Automatic annotation (TrEMBL):
CDD domains: MFS_NepI_like. Its main location: membrane. The keyword Transcription does not apply. Coiled coil: none annotated. This is Major facilitator superfamily MFS_1.
Length: 416
């Protein structure tokens, strides 16, 4: 149940190092674990779908693209519901329903049933990422928002890592069904922990929402050039990131590497580098400004993807690690920047960012299957490199310091 407190009271957002700040960031860390564990455990078994159901890699990849695509389509409605019924209530319903569907997916008799349930799971999952950014922006002191957002994103990296590793580590000893079932049960347990830890909203005021009010809120953000640039950036970078991890397993299982499924799955340990880089990048952006750190993070992604090109394990692994560090650093900075730009309609702002983010995952990540099938890993490097280069251009050209407040640290940030 969401507690509602009048803003005219003496209640203030949680400052860094306060007990409330620690509790809210810990709860959202767990929220990231349960949501992204549910979402990404399937990525580890995509090659198994190809083998078991006799479908192409591009068809198997739909198990990811449909989830993220449906999440993208429902994330704005989920945000609107949270504005009416409360942030914590929507996050709770979302986490529980996604966990239940995750437990049912391993029972699927055909690939069509898998894909249908994954699409429904995308709808169910939308409530947590749609609301978490707005919830943090309301409850946490503005000067600490970048660091707090980084902690939430760190939780998403841990969740994605746990889901993938649990599934991939079991493939050599059992079927994909049991691999996904165990990952789903862990996500369900995490959802329970999140619900128990999640503090009630203190700064939230319910709003009467209609399609017209939501449309006005969305339109107001789309008219902001800086905000629009960040949406485009999230579309490009997430599309490139998910493309790499969707098909990296196929490369590691094939010549010249020929790894087992368990060993190939260990590459997901590089998500831990994102766990470190997310809060670090957020903290640096609070201190030195978003644009400077964002430029550096996207440039790091570009260096990382180029290093994955040779058929040489040390450079491949180094490149994946660097690429992952850059991506999560960029995501942490960009997402907190969106929350700071939004003086009003914050839920719509964060939902638009995540709509672009998951739409990139669905469309660009899905298209990558065709690239990989026709041009192999060199084609994938060219494809992802083009997306990252376009993202770098967006930051350099459209997010210029002359735009008021764009390079200022969060504590002095102008939301014009």
């Amino acid at each position: 149940m969401t507690a509602v407190i009048d803003r005219s009271s003496s209640v203030e957002p949680y400052p860094v190092r306060s007990r409330g700040y620690r509790r809210i960031t810990a709860a959202l860390f767990i929220a990231g674990v349960t949501t992204f564990g549910s979402m990404y455990s399937t990525q580890a078994v995509l090659p198994e779908f190809t083998r078991y159901f006799g479908v192409s890699p591009a068809t198997s990849a739909l198990a990811m693209s449909l989830t993220t695509g449906m999440l993208a389509l429902t994330i704005i409605p989920a945000s609107a519901l949270s504005a009416r019924f409360g942030r914590t209530r929507v996050m709770t319903i979302s986490a529980v329903s996604a966990a239940v569907i995750g437990i049912l997916i391993p029972l699927s008799p055909t690939i069509e049933v898998v894909l249908t349930l994954r699409a429904f799971q995308g709808v169910a999952l939308a409530g947590v990422p749609a609301v978490a950014m707005a919830y943090l922006a309301e409850e946490v002191d503005r000067a600490s928002l970048g660091q707090a957002m980084g902690r939430y994103i760190a939780g998403t990296t841990v969740g994605a890592l746990i889901g993938r590793l649990l599934a991939s580590s079991m493939l050599d000893v059992t079927s994909w069904r049991w691999a996904l079932e165990v990952a789903a049960l862990v996500a369900a347990f995490s959802a329970i922990v999140m619900i128990r830890m999640l503090p009630p909203s203190r700064m939230f005021l319910p709003q009467r929402t209609t399609p017209a009010t939501v449309a006005r809120g969305v339109a107001s953000h789309l008219k902001n050039p800086a905000m629009l640039s960040l949406f485009v950036l999230s579309f490009l970078l997430m599309g490139g990131f998910v493309s790499v991890y969707n098909f990296l397993g196929y490369r590691l299982l094939a010549d010249p590497f020929r790894l087992t499924a368990t060993l190939a799955g260990l590459v997901f340990l590089f998500y831990l580098s994102g766990t470190v880089s997310s809060p670090k990048a957020g903290k640096l952006s609070d201190r030195f400004g978003q644009r400077r750190i964002l430029l550096g993070a996207v440039a790091i992604m570009a260096c990382g993807i180029l290093l994955t090109l040779p058929d040489y394990m040390p450079t491949l692994l180094t490149g994946v690690a660097i690429f992952t560090v850059g991506f999560f650093g960029a995501h942490s900075v960009a997402s907190s920047w969106v929350s700071n730009l939004a003086a009003s309609n914050r839920a719509e702002a964060s939902s638009l960012y995540l709509f672009s983010y998951y739409l990139g995952s669905s469309l660009l990540g899905g298209s990558a299957g065709l690239v990989y099938m026709s041009a192999g890993w060199p084609g994938m490097v060219a494809y992802v490199g083009t997306l990252v280069a376009a993202g770098l251009l967006v930051v350099m050209v459209t997010l210029r310091p002359r735009n008021r407040g764009l390079s200022a640290p969060v504590s002095t940030f102008s939301a014009g």
